[in-house]
Structure formats: structure tokens, C-alpha cells
Amino acid sequence: QASLHSECNNLLYPRADPARRILVYACRICQYDEIGENMRVYRNDLVTPGVTIDLGHDPTLPHSNMRCPSCGHDGAVFYQDQSKRRETRLILFYMCCKCGHSFMDPDLKEYTGTQGGVAADPS
Question: Is 29 within 8 Å of 10 (Cβ atoms)?
């Protein structure tokens, strides 16, 4: 939650005060600062996998003839993981246009995350 300096009406930004060894919220225009009640400056909310609603009907996504392993329909949209995690950044994910089932390429056996690519089944 952003707070404002009551006198000059400017936004207070988080800043470390090394002399007092605390987090303060300070005005960039004047010398005002206040000790912050909330010590959290940044919150990284991770989106849980599988929260893809109605992607099968999104006209902006590319379509494929990939067969759905759930219902057998030959129509799916595909997309890449947006989290930019090293282990999924080059893998395509598919969603069936008929039943909405989300899946990866069934020919993709196993992904180890090493060498920056897809590795074959280690067995």
C-alpha cells in the first residue's frame, strides 16, 4: 500500500537507513522519512500451474492438430510457460479446444533441465 507525505503530498518510497539499520519510507522531494510498519517491500505472487481459463477459445493463440490425450479431439491451442523458469522455458503446453484439458507433447518423454534442452528418458 502506497503512502503519501501529508505536507508535500508526494509518494513515500522504501529506503534502507544504514545508520539506524531499519527500513524507512522516505519522500524524494523533501527530507521527510518515517519508519515503516510493514517491513515487506516486494511480494512475488506465484501463479499456480493449471490456472488457464478458456484458452481453447482464445483467437490470438496459435492452433495445432495435436490430439488430446483426454478426449481424442484433434484441435488444441499451444503456448509457452510465462514464468520463465529454466526447466520449462522452451516447452510448449497445449490445451484442447473441445474439453479444455491441458497437456504437454506426449512425444516429450522426460525433461531433466540440464544442458538447456529436452533430454531423452534416462533409463
Answer: yes
Instruction: Please give the grid coordinates belonging to residue 77.
Output: 491451442
In angstroms, the CA 95 to CA 22 distance is: 48
Q: Is residue 114 packed enough to be buried (19+ CB in 10 Å), middle (13-18) or exposed (0-12)?
A: exposed
The model's pTM: 0.45
Residues found in the chain: 123
Q: Decide if 34 contacts 22 (C-beta within 8 A).
A: no
* Residue of 60, 122, 64 whose CA lies nearest to 97: 64
Quick: pLDDT tens for 5-29: 888 888 988 888 888 888 888 898 8
Give the model confidence (pLDDT) of 32-88 as tens digits. 988 877 766 666 665 555 555 677 777 888 999 999 999 999 999 988 776 666 665
What would the grid cell of residue 118 be?
A: 529436452
Edge-to-edge strand list for the sheet holding 33-35: 12-17, 22-27, 33-35
